[in-house]
Specification:
Layout: H1 9-29, H2 35-48, E1 53-63, E2 66-78, E3 82-87, H3 94-107, E4 111-116, E5 126-130
Helix pairs in contact: 1-2
Length: about 130
């Protein structure tokens, strides 16, 4: 049986900043743009707020005792702790949530966000995922 461990204060602080950044970007730009536009602006807002932000980060994987450079790519990693998967799609696919969960597990991180900017109200497009 796994015992639930609460998130750290730092993870919670980053999470709040991520939600705030998504609101700022969506309020200014609205829906209907390409994912890359939202990503650049989202990262700018977080960087301006003092966070360390990495975009399109390649993450190698270990499988069957082997190391593979060709692992997967994170859209955004904030302060080396929180993963953000950004979308600009009309319909969310459940595989996107599974993708964030897999990324959290494979990087040994606990908190991730799945954010879809192609929604009328950004609150509808933000999903917080804890592993």
């Amino acid at each position: 049986m796994t015992i639930f461990q609460p998130l750290t204060d730092e993870e919670e602080r980053i999470g709040k900043a991520i939600v705030e950044a998504a609101y700022i970007v969506h309020k200014e730009l609205g829906p209907g743009l390409l994912e890359k536009v939202y990503e650049v602006c989202f990262c700018h807002v977080l960087t301006k707020a003092g966070f360390d932000v990495k975009r399109q980060l390649d993450v190698p994987i270990f499988f069957d005792g082997l190391f593979f450079e060709e692992g997967f790519r994170l859209d955004v990693l904030v302060n080396e702790l929180v993963i953000c998967e950004l979308k600009a799609v009309e319909t969310m696919n459940p595989v996107y949530t599974a993708q964030v969960i897999s990324h959290l597990r494979l990087t040994n991180r606990r908190l991730g966000y799945l954010i879809n900017f192609n929604v009328p109200i950004i609150k509808q497009g933000i999903k917080r995922i804890i592993r």
